[in-house]
Design brief:
heterodimer; A: 732 residues; alpha+beta; Penicillin-binding protein 2a (Domain 2); Beta-lactamase; 5 domains; 5-stranded antiparallel sheet; elongated; B: 384 residues; mainly alpha; 3-stranded antiparallel sheet; 13 helices; globular
Chain lengths: 732, 384
Amino acid sequence: MTFYRSTNNRQINSKRRTNLFLLLFIAFFLAVLSKLFVLQILDSEIYRTAAKKQYHSKVILNASRGLIFDKNMNLLVSNTTKVSIAADPNMIDKPDSVAGLLAYIFGKDKQEYLDKLSGKNTSFIYLERKVDLQSVKGLDTMSIEGLIVLKDPSRNYNYGQIGSKILGLIDIENKGRSGLELEYNDDLSGKDGYIVMQKDGRGNKRPDLEYPRKDPLKGNNLVLTVDVDIQKFAEEELESGVVNYNASGGKVLVVSVKTGEILALASYPTYDPNNLKISDTAGFKNSVLTDIYEPGSVFKIVTAAGLIEEHLLDRNSIVQTEGGTFDVSGIKVKDSHGFNSMSFEEIIEQSSNIGVMKIARKLGPEKFYKYARDFGFGIYSGLDLPGENKGYLKRPVDFSSESLEFLAIGYQVMVNAVQLSMAYSAVANDGVLMKPYIVKKIIDPAGNPVKEFYPQRLRQVIQQSTSKELNSFFIGVVQRGTGRAANIENVTIAGKTGTSQRIVDGKYSSGSHNSTFIGYFPAEDPQILITVILDDPKSGEFYGGRVAAPIFRNIAQRIIDYKGVSNLSQPDIITFKNNEQTTEDVKYTAGNLIAIPNLRNLKLDDAVEILKEKKLKYEVIKDDTMQRSLKSASPDNVIVVVDQQPDINESVEYDEKLIIKLITRNCKPDKNEQIKVPDVINLSLRRAINRLIVEGFKVEIVGSGEVITQIPKANTEQKPGTKVILFCRNSD
Amino acid sequence: MKFSGYKIDIWILLPVILLMMFSIGAVYSASSYFSMDKFNDSNYMLKHHSLRVLLALLMIFLFTRIDFRIYKDIGKYLIWISILALIFIFIFGVSTVKGASRWINLGPLSFQPADLAKFTLIIYLSALLVKKKNYAHMLYKGYLPLIFYILVVSGLVALQPNFSTAFIIFGTSVMLLLISPVKIKHIIITLLCMIPVAVSFILSKSYIVGRLTSHADYASGGSSNYQLRQALLGFGNGGFFGVGPGNSMQREYFLPEAYGDFIYAIVGEEYGFIGAFTVLVLFMIILVRGLKVSKMIKDEFGKYLSFGITMILSFYAVVNMSVACGLIPTTGVPIPFVSYGGTALLFNSIGVGILLNISSYRNETDEEMINEGNKVIEINSKVG
């Protein structure tokens, strides 16, 4: 059989080449092997880090923002979820039925939606914006191809426009943009939590089993000094005053004179925060704080107070008032009345400019400046709202030849409404200037005080006797003088009018004024002060006594009706804050009680972080009885706080030595042990997940809300790491 | 070891069985997440794969019992069936996988003619080399008919388009010619003529250019090759010991179709360097033992056939592993016995069965073979 025979030469050749290919392929295999060696041994750590990064993603759980209450715990601001509905018209299969559904839900014309859905050259169009979650009738849970439902956490202003200037607004990122929302943003915003999600290559996410989630900490709530009823009176009366006297705007401030609490703060124009329009932007500023102006006669308080305090002039001393015209350094000054001589008291009652200019000379620039500054002009009032303009008070060295005289009647000085109100409050408060404040206390979500604010005396501006004397002058203003329009039956009102010319085109205008009335009552034991300022009233009347005083009277009357005459002089018991105490000290000394944070089911690291933030000491106690096996004590293990002492909601006196005990447990148990599945039915999803993870189970979630069924069943013995499927349903 | 009366090479059979066992675990790991998501049954693909492995084992044992010499006579029919099947899908384009027609549906079964063709070509080339052994060195009578079949089969596969498989088929065939009396001069001239054809073919297929450039990008530190980057993360994350069976993260859609051509990366992730090394060594054993059979066997047909089968399996393995760990540009070539996929597993098992049958003759003289062979034919005819 020659068939199988071949030459030796060829055989050897063939074998040699076979060996060559063998070596070649072994070389290939070795090349792969060396590459694996690099990948899996030398550079393994680099890849491991990169891989971890892509498996996990942190999902931020937004903390719900704190609420704002008025002094009587009326809820002014709460949280709500707004829903915007948009569509990708190209993705909508049946525009007709979708439009029909929307028309049914929102009670609008179907054609309106059909028009929007027929715009095929866009892939995103809003159908409804920022509507209430309740109003969408479950549309958010339906999945309609092409329909996009966007949820925004949002604020609900329960009184609408009332108090909007105080409360302020938040921006789209839920951060304070103005008002209290801005000033107290850190307190209100709380602390966002997170959940670590495990994700796959297509971005599908599920809660990671290795990491317990960190719950968001709700923001703290604010309790204001504001009384929403008084706020309502102020805003309504201001608005009708602005309309009646055809003013461009106005401000009202209501202050509790004994404490410096702001009872109401209003300015016009204003806006409804629940329903913002582009035209509202002019009304966004809180002009009570941001507007400064030349106050006119209300500034005469400085001269009058100084002269009495320094015993330079008796109330009955007669001053020549030149028959109504006077020349100051070449500038002609006129009085609206033409008396030749008036007493000091009459000068204030009738608000004689000439008289005040002349008597101011007795006081002199230095003393004038001292009293003006002591009353708080030219410096920040310290009110805890953003945007205050401190105005401008000339120093004596900067005075020109006529400065003293004009300052005395309220020109060449810029003040804001808060400064004026507090200066008059000082007179009403036995000469003591108070620091104005609008937040009474900050409380945690459970209602425990976090920080309380107390009335704060800034300084004794004038003697009590001086304040009594001035008080009687101001009573005279309302009873006999320029402020008669502020009179109210049965209640003695004290007050002062002011009318100043506004500067138009660089000149003082005889046709444009700011009109002011500041008054307080009951004058015998002053409690409430109201400042009313009208900007540029154009109804023909412009004197403070004619346009601002009636508004004052209306507000005062409503407050008196609301409180009752007999209750006006019964103030709350007031605790004063010691001036020397710094704000830092107050932090945990509110009644010496502190709020203990809830640390249960947090990773130890997170719990410690919270405690450090609160400057609380802690001690970690390992719960060995629950720790299952030492085999699992690798550094990867997750240590979770299972208990704490003292517990939340326990009232604990703050003490330097206070130590929070954290009982911790290793939550990665030995893989071979059987453990009982805990019963998590009826628990909230969050609690259920934490519970199961702490026990060492994995969790899979179907639905959301409250757990209604679990597989495997409770109390069955399972291996740690077993997946427990939770079926959930929203409890409502 | 005597097996069913034959002394087959256990060192070829054992690695193959081990690889198949490995593949059950790896396919389960690599596919369970996808299966759960897609078929709502994490075992869906595992069940299919296990059935196929069982079938594959049956094929090995069946073909181990069939005397390899019968293929010498039926080789011509086999090659033409393969060529017709390739032409059939080239014209009708039955089932499209990522833009390439590679499948034929036969009722519940579907198969890739290329998997059949790669073995029938080797069988027929081996037969031709034996038949033309006295004039294989001649151009017209020897070389041209041989290269004709090689070019037709690899050309049709390339046109599917499945360039990588065509390349492996062509490469293995050329290696087969190189151990035969065919003149190297002819082969070199053919290769030189192939260069412009291959270049223009590559340039006409944008996807190939894309892969080559993305590999160049990867090689220079870029990351445009997502699949490769994920494969490398898998290997790296596995480290020395691996993350453990069933713990792969890369399979969760990070590594697209992890159960297929990139399953080696999942092996590397779950079983670590140790696992990847083991798989590689198993293939090296098959390579060494397979070529040993080829060197030892007296039968010319058996020599070529065992060489071709060994080389094509090794070629697939090397290319797949090199792709998975980024040594060469990404191309879709399955790893024999491990990747999920029915046709390849089936034909590879048949190939191994044939190889094992050849191995049982490796130490025998011509005379003994003939006698043994006659015996087999007798047995077969009795069975038949």
